Amino acid sequence: MIIIIEKKNETAYVTNVDIRGISPCSFPSKRNPVTKSKCNEGFQIIDLNNNNDMPDDKLIKIYYSALGLLGIYILFNLQIKNLKLK
Questions:
Q1: SS3 at position 23
Q2: Is residue 5 very low, low, confident or very high in pLDDT (cuts 50, 70, 90)?
Q3: Cβ-Cβ contacts under 8 Å for 34 (sequence gap 6 or more)
Q4: Which of the four, 28, 33, 71, 72, has the lowest number of CB atoms within 10 Å?
Q5: What are phi and psi for residue 4, nearest 5 degrees?
Q6: CB 54 within 8 A of CB 64
Q7: CB under 8 Å to 30, separation ≥6 — which residues?
């Protein structure tokens, strides 16, 4: 079965509230006519120098470290258990 889809341009009334939710990239002018925002397609520059999500509190650092060590311990024991079953 072959289905042929034709591209059609249709017009209809749309409320301004609905237009606010449409991406600016969907419009031919690449600008939302209601919000006046521009289309931001493509890559974004990430600031690699300021990518520190770890808090400065020592207690939280100890907690995260303990969680990491617990996770490594659990994975290690699962690997040992899998090796003994073979």
A1: coil
A2: low
A3: 16, 19, 20
A4: 28
A5: -105, 120
A6: yes
A7: 24, 38, 39
> In this structure, which amino acid lies at residue 59?
L
- Residues found in the chain: 86
The identity of residue 72, as a single letter, is I
pLDDT in tens, 9-41: 777 788 888 888 888 888 888 888 899 888 887
Q: Please list, in sequence order, all residues whose beta carbon lies within 8 angstroms of the beta carbon of residue 16, skipping any fewer than 6 positions away.
A: 34
Tokens (6 digits) for 46: 């990430």
pLDDT tens, 32-76? Answer: 889 988 888 777 666 666 666 667 789 988 999 999 999 999 999
Structure-token pair, residue 73:
């311990």
pTM of the model: 0.39
Q: Where are the beta strands (DSSP E) in the chain?
A: none
